[in-house]
């Protein structure tokens, strides 16, 4: 499988002088991107028919201004859940599956590019994945968002959004929207920099501890985000300390582990349910569970009502909204510093 990294132009045309984010040249081809293992995929021109694995990839393409090239998606966004006027445009995209797109449907979609947010990650119910040869036979180039899909193979803690920014730059280069990608990345950098400036004087020991509660992963044994997950960078940049310092992307723990760490704040990380009303209902259910469960109702964050209702995807999957989530968290944690 091929995936996104900062795109590099190996030679190529000179007609575009405009530099895009990450050093890619907007509209200049060929453009090459690499996968988690370093294998290269080269584009001699912009893709015309794109399928996305989920709403995160779709949203990035919409923000880049190439949504008219998307011919299908899996895991569609719910009505009214996409920001910045993107909702109506997203509704026009054909839904190939409400979950993981079946292999036969993907290979028969007529796409020339499949943008995969999941990649090597294990997805429940995914079934048999297409092989490199099958993608090739169908005329589909397969790339994915490395900051999410390749996180498990990375090294060291993820504490910034540079990998996400590289994904956006690469996708901009592949689609010929390098200038727009540069604009999006610059906006993310401004937001994060403003938060960092506001909270910069707060010593690490004074920064509150933070628990990302993945309610949809099940309550019997919580799944927590570890130091290689995008969420760890979002939490860190917002001026909080991930209450779990495990090495990897996610890990199952016991509620006794959560209790022993007694977090200052809890994010109700509910996954998109298909509508704003359904999401609000799920947030309320997650909070109610924490308040009523004998193992969690005595937690400091629960007793003080320190809950943040922030969708899971905008925290754990690469996107422009990672920077927005940094702002949202920081405003709650530092109301006198971040406005």
Describe the structure.
- The protein has 339 residues and is of the alpha/beta class.
- The protein folds into two domains: 21-185, Rossmann fold (3-Layer(aba) Sandwich); 201-333, Nitrogenase molybdenum iron protein domain (Rossmann fold, 3-Layer(aba) Sandwich).
- It contains 13 helices and 13 strands.
- The chain has helices at 55-63, 87-91, 103-107, 132-137, 146-149, 162-175, 178-199, 230-237, 255-261, 276-292, 300-303, 313-316, 321-333; strands at 31-34, 40-43, 50-52, 70-74, 95-97, 113-116, 141-144, 209-213, 223-225, 241-242, 250-252, 265-268, 307-308.
- The strands form four sheets. The protein has a five-stranded parallel beta sheet.
- α4 (132-137) links the parallel β6 (113-116) and β7.
- α6 (162-175) packs antiparallel against α7.
- The longest helix is centred in the middle third of the chain and has 22 residues, at 178-199.
- The radius of gyration is 20 Å and the shape is globular.
- The chain starts with 30 loop residues before the first strand and ends in a 6-residue tail after the last helix.
- 48% of the residues are buried.
- Residues 5-26 have low confidence and may be disordered.
């Amino acid at each position: 499988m091929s995936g996104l990294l900062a795109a590099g132009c190996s030679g190529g045309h000179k007609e575009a002088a405009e530099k895009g984010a990450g050093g890619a040249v907007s509209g200049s081809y060929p453009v090459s991107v690499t996968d988690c293992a370093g294998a290269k995929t080269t584009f001699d021109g912009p893709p015309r028919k794109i399928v996305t694995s989920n709403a995160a990839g779709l949203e990035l393409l919409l923000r880049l201004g190439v949504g008219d090239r998307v011919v299908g998606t899996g895991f569609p966004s719910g009505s009214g859940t996409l920001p910045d006027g993107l909702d109506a445009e997203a509704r026009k995209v054909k839904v190939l599956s409400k979950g993981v797109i079946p292999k036969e449907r993907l290979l028969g979609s007529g796409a020339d590019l499949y943008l995969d947010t999941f990649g090597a990650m294990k997805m429940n119910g995914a079934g048999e994945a297409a092989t490199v040869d099958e993608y090739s036979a169908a005329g589909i180039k397969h790339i994915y968002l490395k900051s999410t899909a390749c996180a498990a193979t990375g090294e060291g803690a993820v504490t910034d959004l540079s990998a996400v920014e590289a994904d956006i730059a690469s996708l901009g280069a592949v689609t010929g929207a390098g200038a727009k990608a540069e604009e999006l990345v610059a906006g993310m950098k401004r937001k994060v920099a403003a938060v960092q400036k506001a909270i910069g004087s707060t010593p690490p020991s004074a920064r509150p501890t933070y628990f990302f509660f993945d309610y949809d992963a099940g309550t019997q044994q919580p799944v927590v985000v570890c130091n290689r997950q995008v969420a760890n960078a979002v939490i860190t940049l917002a001026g909080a300390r991930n209450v779990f310092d495990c090495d990897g992307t996610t890990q199952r723990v016991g509620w006794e582990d959560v209790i022993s760490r007694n977090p200052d704040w809890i994010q109700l990380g509910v996954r998109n349910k298909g509508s704003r009303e359904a999401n609000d209902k799920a947030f309320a259910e997650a909070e109610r569970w924490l308040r009523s469960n004998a193992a969690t109702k005595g937690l400091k964050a629960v007793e003080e009502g320190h809950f943040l209702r922030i969708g899971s995807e905008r925290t754990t999957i690469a996107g422009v909204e990672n920077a927005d989530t940094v702002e949202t968290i920081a405003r709650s944690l530092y109301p006198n510093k971040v406005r």
